[in-house]
Design brief:
By secondary structure, the chain is of the alpha+beta class. The protein is built from 4 helices and 3 strands, in the order ββαβααα. The chain folds into 2 domains: about 45 residues, no CATH class; about 40 residues, no CATH class. A hairpin with a 5-residue loop joins β1 and β2.
């Protein structure tokens, strides 16, 4: 289920039923409908236009060790994990 924080506008997918119930009981959150196409557009990232340090950070968040890698290698590794 997709939940939106009314104050910040942040949207994320929640799968834990207890968490969904807790959030929906709060006035700060609401359920929203997200079309599949919108989710795909949000997930598409233009890796080639990103700066090297931003790529390294993203790779690190995905569990990729970037030591000794150049920009092309990092992009290739990110694509392998589905970014």
């Amino acid at each position: 289920m997709w939940i939106k924080n009314k104050r910040t506008g942040m949207v994320w997918e929640i799968v834990d039923e207890k968490m969904i119930k807790r959030l929906l009981n709060s006035d700060d959150y609401e359920e929203i409908q997200v079309q599949h196409e919108q989710k795909e557009q949000e997930q598409k990232i233009d890796l080639k236009s990103m700066k090297f340090n931003d790529l390294k950070k993203l790779a690190s968040e995905k569990g990729i060790n970037t030591f000794g890698m150049d920009k092309k290698q990092i992009i290739k590794a990110l694509k392998k994990v589905g970014v």
